[in-house]
Write a structure and sequence with these properties.
It is built from four helices and seven strands; from the N terminus they run αββββαβαβαβ. The protein is of the alpha+beta class.
Amino acid sequence: MVSRIAINFFKKAIGTDSILKTRTIQKLPETLIYSRQSHYKAFSTKNGNLLGEMIAYPITLEHTSLYYPNTKNKFKCLYIDELIANVKKHGIGKALIDVAKKESYKKGCDGRINLVASCIDESNISPQTFYYKMGFTTTNKKHLQEIIRLKDSPKPQMFSDPSTQTPMFFELNFK
């Protein structure tokens, strides 16, 4: 059963004054993700805390060497503008990436997702490494070598230059 605190938090976050009456839900998942337009938010159903959020929307790109280099025509893709996990190492980022994969198909992007990975927090983990583990890659060979080196490191590390911005795309067979 969801606590009154969590219900009030969801109402405030979603911007509603009342919750529609539905049949009683005996058990909710530990994390609930909702979306409003291009904003996706993950909440804990135990205490209503915001666990993470993502801003992602469809865009149309011309052929570019940064994303899907073998593409000859314009294509539509889901662009992740921002992804923040407030709780690290609990699967929140992965859950949001999974939502992006589904949304990519729903929004006519055929599984194509791209982003620019850069570090905006004080963590010691390279976001490029996280995205690589989620199936993203980059055409920048120097960045890719560093991502692979960091991925295989026994201890989480940051890029040699933490301000590095790496264009990345979800790797799939696409032409």
